[in-house]
Design a protein that fits this description.
Length: 458
């Protein structure tokens, strides 16, 4: 009797359903903002990055089967990045003809400047074997070192040096194994950028009269923001992700992290039926010097009612998770758990499903805790939040959500929800493969979501 060919295990029903939901959102995104759309260049590079990630997350046939209807995820990423590069070049030429420099050219963050687009272009063109284009865009990322070294440059994530460090790490992970020369060049630039961020943090902490509380504090547009997008928590998260450099500055980084995580957590509001209120972190702090000359922080808080990646607990929790990975102390993990609980109690907000201040962004802390603990409570929360993402249109129509400024973009709109659904689906597929004893899925490096997009995911 001939040997029978072993059949693939059946795909669990919940994965089938989540896959359908993911495809549906993807198709809507492709319909609304196809690569041929004349979006601004930032939006297009974001979609390119989304489809690059979907390509990279491919575990077995999880994504490719249905994506073949639109060619492949990496081909889509190529179309989007071609469009982003063309739109940016045209815009640049127009502006230069009038003697203007675009702001996206004069800053160096990954998310909101040309640096991110060049970094994403490098990674995609490498995947597509367009080596000459890839080298051209890599050079532009490395040349942006001169922008990051300007004295007036901020250290913030979206536009400044912390974002540049992310861009360097991003291109570093996409280098060919043999490209030692480029890797060494990236490491030299990163060390300089890192030192400039530290100097800026020390200077600002002294300026704000808070150096007796924290050795590092950063400001952006005149405010000492604390959150992940513009503030100290986001910058510290990035700094902790360069292990060699973080070791050099470890005592300083740890005191500054403890300041953010423990000294300025505060009560915000009470919850019906709960014996305790919900804690949050203020969006920023102001130095308030009392008659005794000290700085009573409790009188110095900015808004404490924001629960979103950019301001408040959902982003601070990501910093806590990173501190747990870097310093290894359980108390950091406990802060992440408290931040996730507070975020859950605070609800879905009114700002849509994007990553920066929407549901997808807030879901990430739950998703990362799910990966760490595999506890049902996080699985249930993530499932509920992905369902909200899938129902985004009804929530927008009934007025629960306000329409964001960029309703389709990765950072503010539907593309952020697609990212979450894809990452969650990839995690579920990994779990299913592991549970069916597939050796390929037991490698913890490839298992599930690595971190928050464009902050801690590489
Ligand atoms: Zn935001």
């Amino acid at each position: 009797m001939a040997d029978s060919i072993p059949e693939d295990p059946p795909i669990p029903q919940h994965i089938q359903k989540d896959r359908e939901g993911f495809y549906k959102l993807c198709e809507r995104l492709l319909h609304e903002v196809p690569p041929s759309s004349t979006q601004d260049q930032t939006g297009l590079a974001g979609y390119a990055l989304l489809f690059l990630r979907i390509h990279e997350w491919d575990v077995g046939d999880a994504f490719s089967t249905s994506l073949t209807a639109w060619d492949s995820a990496i081909a889509l990423a190529g179309e989007y990045i071609d469009a982003a590069v063309a739109v940016t070049d045209a815009h640049r030429q127009r502006q230069h003809a009038h003697g203007h420099i675009r702001s996206a050219e004069s800053q160096c963050g990954f998310l909101c400047t040309d640096v991110g687009m060049h970094a994403v272009a490098f990674a995609i063109y490498r995947q597509l074997d367009r080596e000459r284009d890839a080298a051209d865009h890599l050079r532009k990322v490395l040349d942006a070192a001169t922008i990051s070294e300007q004295a007036s440059m901020s250290s913030e994530l979206l536009y400044g040096r912390a974002g540049y460090l992310y861009a360097l790490q991003f291109v570093r992970t996409h280098l060919a194994d043999a490209d030692e020369e480029r890797r060494a060049e990236i490491d030299r630039i990163a060390a300089r950028t890192y030192a400039l961020i530290i100097e800026d943090g020390q200077r600002t902490s002294r300026q704000w009269g808070l150096d007796h509380r924290t050795p590092l504090l950063w400001q952006w547009h005149g405010k000492a923001y604390l959150g992940a997008a513009h503030g100290t928590a986001g910058i510290l998260t990035i700094l902790m992700r360069w292990p060699e450099l973080a070791k050099r500055y470890a005592p300083m980084l740890q005191v500054a992290t403890d300041f953010v995580l423990f000294a300025i957590e505060t009560w915000t509001f009470s919850v019906a039926g709960a014996s305790e209120g919900v804690r949050n972190w203020p969006s920023s702090i102001r130095p308030v010097v009392s008659e005794q000359g000290d700085s009573p922080l409790e009188r110095a808080y900015g808004r404490t009612n924001l629960f979103q990646f950019c301001h408040g607990a959902p982003g601070i929790g990501l910093c806590a998770l990173q501190a747990h990975a870097t310093f290894g102390n359980r108390r950091y993990f406990d802060v992440a758990v408290r931040a996730a609980d507070a975020t859950w109690v605070a609800g879905i907000g009114q700002k849509g499903v994007g990553l920066c201040h929407g549901v997808a962004g807030n879901a990430y802390l739950q998703l990362l805790l799910l990966r760490h603990t595999e506890m049902t409570v996080y699985a249930d929360r993530v499932r509920a939040l992905t369902l909200v993402c899938r129902l985004w249109e009804s929530y927008t129509r009934n007025g629960t959500f306000r329409l964001p400024d960029h309703p389709w973009s990765l950072w503010e709109g539907l593309a952020g929800a697609v990212w979450l659904l894809a990452d969650h689906l990839s995690y579920e597929v990994c779990v299913a493969m592991r549970d069916s004893d597939d050796a390929a899925a037991s490698n913890s490096d490839t298992f599930g979501p690595r971190g928050f997009p464009c902050l801690s995911d590489i």
